Amino acid sequence: MDIWRERMPEFSGPIVEAKYARMNAQAFNDAQRDSFAEAERMALRFSLADRVLISTPMWNFSIPYKLKQWFDIIVQPGLTFTFDPSQGYLPLLNDRPTLVILASGSDFATGMNRGRIDMATPYLREILRFVGIRNVRFVPIGPTTGPQQPIVAARERSEQRLAAMAMSF
Ligand SMILES: Cc1cc2nc3c(=O)[nH]c(=O)nc-3n(C[C@H](O)[C@H](O)[C@H](O)COP(=O)(O)O)c2cc1C
User: Fold this and answer.
1) What does the alpha-carbon distance between residue 33 and residue 27 come to, in Å, rounded to a whole number?
2) Cα(63) to centroid of ligand 1, in Å?
3) Ligand 1: residues within 6 Å at CB?
4) Rg from Cα positions in the chain
5) Residue minimizing CA distance to atom 19 of ligand 1
6) What is the topology classification, in CATH, of domain 51-166?
7) Rounded to whole angstroms, how far apart are CA atoms 130 and 13?
């Protein structure tokens, strides 16, 4: 799925109301039902994937807003998670092999660069865990900007790791 090209509903108005209606066990009106149906379609497509590959750049230490929008749409009560007063939040998706390739202008392989923290990796780990996906591996690629030699070395390192992983993915 190319999240930059495919139409995704703006997360405002009826889809927000639908989320709260669902959390409060209230019935949908027509607009809420239509917008929630889009979320259902997107969540279903995700749930049917045998394997997941997320290829994303780091933007301002986190993920691009389009990827966040996609999570905001599919992370819905009754679709990808549920809440039980005695057990708390429970994921609804089956686990599956998942790989995240995270490109960054700087080298964030240690989780930090010059005092700046990579918040994309922990965010993705947590949101995927929240919906049931724990079998996640991360391959950072960085630096992708600046002097040529470190860029080439980072790319080669990541490609080698990916080639090794491809055997068992
Ligand atoms: C809006 C924006 C924000 C960015 N923020 C960061 C950042 O916080 N840290 C970083 O190392 N690189 C940052 N970059 C650089 C990209 O992560 C880097 O160029 C990456 O390789 C882009 O991936 P792509 O070529 O697949 O689009 C940013 C780039 C853009 C356009």
Assistant:
1) 9
2) 9
3) 57-61, 103-106, 142, 144-145
4) 18
5) 105
6) Rossmann fold (3.40.50)
7) 24
The two structure tokens encoding residue 86: 């005695």
Centre of ligand 1 to C-alpha 8, Å, is 22
pLDDT per residue as tens digits for the range 48-82: 999 999 999 999 999 999 999 999 999 999 999 99
What are the extents of the domains in the chain? Answer: 51-166
Residues 17, 18, 19, 25: is their CA dihedral positive or negative? positive
Q: Using CA positions, which residue lies closest to atom 4 of ligand 1?
A: 59
Q: Give residue 94 CA to ligand 1 midpoint distance, Å.
A: 31
DSSP SS3 for 79: coil
Q: What would the two tokens of residue 5 be?
A: 């090209």
Main-chain phi, psi angles of 166, to 5 degrees? -60, -30
pLDDT digits (tens, 9 = 90+) for 11-20: 999 999 999 9
CB 80 within 8 A of CB 127: no
